[in-house]
Design goal:
Strand 3, helix 9 and strand 4 (175-178) form a beta-alpha-beta unit. This protein has 231 residues and is mostly helical. It has helices at 9-21, 24-28, 37-45, 51-61, 64-83, 93-103, 114-123, 141-145, 163-171, 184-200, 207-218; strands at 107-109, 132-134, 157-160, 175-178. The strands form two sheets. The chain has a two-stranded parallel ribbon. Strands 3-4 form a two-stranded parallel ribbon. It is globular, with a radius of gyration of 19 Å. It folds into two domains: 9-83, no CATH class; 93-218, HAD superfamily/HAD-like (Rossmann fold, 3-Layer(aba) Sandwich), CATH 3.40.50.1000.
């Protein structure tokens, strides 16, 4: 529930550590939080932020901080694989995909690892409605969404719940339908009842999309709800 939600796990790790550095409770206990410079450098230089590229970098450098980040990421995957079972999509997700599939090519564009995406989509029998599933190993959301540029103006739409999704859409001249965090069911209801029809009718761009974006922004705070100390 923030303006950085939905980002790749490695930048999210760095941001989490930086927020911890500014927690009064952490400072009061004299706990030193280290944000490895080598990890930040790898994030800046690498375009496919995932375990395979990090494994290659660890093999190349032997850096202990990168190894620690890799170990953490592997455990994240293991935890997700252990926990995420029997989690159904929000109401109206399936109906939305079915209607989109009738007239559009549907592509999954995510910062989640491919294996987790394919497991979740196949488990819920909704993989049949998409032409491809592209997770973090496929590249950034911006890179993946570049596939939409072959369609005409206002003929492509990204559905997302994070500002990074919106930025990827803008970078590729793609329309954007936001799923409001914490109010997902109402967002999907509106999409299947109203927004999908506006998209196919060519009435989505402009004032209607801006209304949705303004509402979306109101759900995303820039600062956390707890007290902070100066960086």
């Amino acid at each position: 529930y923030s303006k950085s939600r939905g980002i790749n796990r490695f930048p999210a790790l760095v941001e989490s550590l930086e927020w911890l550095q500014r927690r009064p409770e952490v400072a009061a206990r004299n706990i030193e939080i280290n944000v490895p410079a080598v990890l930040k450098q790898w994030i800046e230089e690498e375009t496919k932020l995932g375990n395979p590229t990090l494994e290659a970098k660890v093999a190349e450098t032997g850096d202990p901080d990168l190894q620690l980040a890799l170990d953490w990421s592997v455990k994240v995957n293991d935890t997700v694989a252990d926990m995420v079972h029997g989690v159904a999509p929000f109401p109206n997700v399936r109906e939305s995909l079915q209607r989109l599939d009738e007239k559009a090519d549907v592509l999954v564009c995510s910062a989640t690892p491919n294996a987790a995406l394919k497991q979740e989509w196949s488990e819920n029998d909704i993989e049949q409605y998409v032409v491809e599933i592209c997770g973090q190993e496929s590249g950034s959301k911006k890179e993946t969404l570049s596939n939409a540029t072959k369609y005409g103006e206002n003929k492509s739409l990204m559905i997302g719940d994070a500002p990074g999704d919106f930025r990827a859409a803008v970078a590729n001249n793609v329309l954007f339908y936001p799923i409001n965090p914490g109010d997902e069911e109402r967002s999907w209801q509106r999409f299947v009842d109203e927004s999908i029809h506006k998209f196919f009718a060519g009435e989505f761009a402009g004032d209607y999309q801006q209304m949705l974006l303004d509402e979306f922004d109101s759900y995303l705070p820039e600062q956390p709800s707890w007290d902070l100390i100066d960086a």
